[in-house]
Design brief:
Blueprint: E1 11-12, E2 18-19, E3 23-26, E4 29-33, E5 39-44, H1 51-58, E6 69-71, E7 77-79, E8 86-87, H2 93-96, E9 99-104, H3 119-136, E10 151-152, H4 164-169, H5 171-186, E11 193-197, E12 202-204, E13 211-214, E14 219-229, E15 232-237, E16 243-248, E17 267-271, E18 276-278, E19 285-288, E20 293-303, E21 306-311, E22 317-322, H6 336-347, H7 360-366, H8 378-387, H9 397-409, H10 421-426
Parallel strand pairs: 1-7, 5-9, 5-10, 6-9
Antiparallel strand pairs: 2-8, 3-4, 6-7, 11-14, 12-13, 14-15, 15-16, 17-20, 18-19, 20-21, 21-22
Helix pairs in contact: 3-5, 6-8
Bound molecules: zinc ion.
Length: 427
């Protein structure tokens, strides 16, 4: 399903704290893209504020959090992570890869308050949930008390009170209010049209999506809407069981009756079982190699900085090489200070080549560290030198002010030093 975003928003500010795309992840490996959103996760801010308040949090890379949407105390809705992307919100990549996450501002602080939300926020929440369900084909909002329902909560994945007593107590009411609007909306206002379908014809989750079941028997079925993708027109079954092919205008390609032309082997490549297989060079992932082994590559194609090889088995394409190119942010030049930094990081076990050239490995090693007020040590001393303040190895007021000024100058979130800040510091 093509992902869309809500038109109910009055602010769009896309957070850097998100993962591009949505995936099934097994043992840390992206197995296949997730094409359909099946859940909504409602959070509370544990705070009171406006969309600007929320924006300041999620635009700061050091905060490492986001949500697809936030609703503020006066009921305004903001988009902070496109629905196509996974937000960093529920302490669970499994959940966030499947859910639209919504952070709702409270209208009062503190445990004694019960963490209420305003009526305006509640109304906006219901409207937004209805909109999300409609656009993503979620038939109803259902709370099962565990992660299997279409409504999930943060506390299912982490030790947190989120979404707070007030929202928790209204769980059933939220579901009822959303589902009442969905029912009215789905009362068929389209008469549709009839098509003849054969038994066992595939039923897809979305037009052009994946097969979820098949037609039970050969007869006529009512299609309530259709959608053309390429040469194929898909129709949505009135039963809402899914989409079927109602017309296929794919041109007939002449193929020789003899066996397919033999592709000459280019070379053999050793691949690990968990290497991803792509449908096309640079296309979407369709699975993994499946077993360690030596594979024959019959064709090569370069997309961006990756060289893809076509597997002789016909299973798809794999990445055979990543081309190291100079990147937009690092200079590639020798810098004595960078060499010093690499040595400091190595003392902490980074295992870098201390070549004095900043690159992604150095950046990744830096990202493990933050500099907060009161921190001490050689890394602090290095940061002080880099920022041109007196290098006593203690992050005091002067050092923190220099960090804040540096963050401001580079358009970064102002706070302790960490995350992407390092990229700007070492380039
Ligand atoms: Zn939460």
């Amino acid at each position: 399903m093509a992902f869309t975003n809500s038109s109910l928003v009055s602010m769009v500010s896309i957070s850097p704290n998100r993962s591009i795309g949505r995936y099934n992840i097994v043992n840390g490996v992206r197995i296949a893209p997730i094409t359909k959103i099946t859940k909504i996760t409602i959070h509370h801010w544990a705070g009171v504020g406006t969309l600007d308040t929320f924006k300041n949090i999620v635009m700061n890379p050091n905060r490492e959090m986001s949500a697809n949407y936030a609703i503020d105390v006066i009921g305004k809705i903001g988009l902070f992570c496109p629905e196509a992307d996974r937000s960093w919100c529920s302490s669970s990549q499994w959940n966030d890869n499947r859910a639209i996450t919504i952070e709702v501002s409270n209208s009062a602080y503190g445990d004694a308050s019960g963490w209420p939300i305003s009526d305006a926020s509640y109304k906006a929440l219901i409207r937004l949930c209805v909109d999300i369900c409609k656009r993503n084909g979620i038939p109803k909002l259902e709370f099962t008390g565990d992660k299997n329902g279409s409504l999930t909560y943060h506390y299912m994945y982490a030790s947190t009170g989120c979404p707070g007593p007030y929202i928790k107590a209204r769980t059933q009411q939220i579901c009822n209010d959303v589902n009442a609007q969905l029912q009215t909306a789905s009362t068929p206002d389209v008469s549709g049209y009839l098509v003849s379908l054969e038994a066992n014809a595939p039923i897809y989750d979305t037009a052009g999506g994946k097969v979820i079941s098949k037609i039970a028997k050969s007869t006529k079925y009512t299609i309530v809407k259709d959608k053309k993708i390429g040469y194929i027109t898909y129709g949505l079954l009135k039963s809402n069981a899914g989409w079927v092919v109602v017309k296929n205008e794919t041109p007939v390609v002449h193929t020789p009756t003899t066996s397919a032309p033999v592709q000459s082997d280019l070379y053999k490549k050793s691949l690990k079982a968990n290497e991803l297989v792509y449908k096309e060079a640079g296309g979407s992932t369709i699975g993994t190699v499946g077993a360690n082994g030596v594979f024959t590559i019959v064709e090569e194609k370069t997309v961006g900085n990756q060289v893809f090889g076509k597997l002789k088995s016909g299973k798809g394409w794999v990445v055979v090489k990543t081309i190291q190119t100079s990147t937009s942010w690092w200079s590639g030049k020798y810098d004595a200070q960078i060499k010093e930094l690499q040595q400091i990081l190595n003392a902490g076990g980074a295992g870098l080549v201390a070549d004095g050239i900043a690159g992604d490995k150095t950046f990744q090693a830096c990202k493990k560290y933050t500099v907060k007020k009161g921190d001490t040590g050689n890394l602090i001393k290095w940061v002080q030198k880099r920022l041109g303040v007196s290098a006593d190895g203690i992050a005091g007021t002067q050092t923190m002010n220099a960090i804040y000024a540096f963050q401001k100058k580079n358009g970064l979130g102002v706070g302790y030093l960490g995350g992407d800040d390092w990229k700007y510091l070492i380039r």
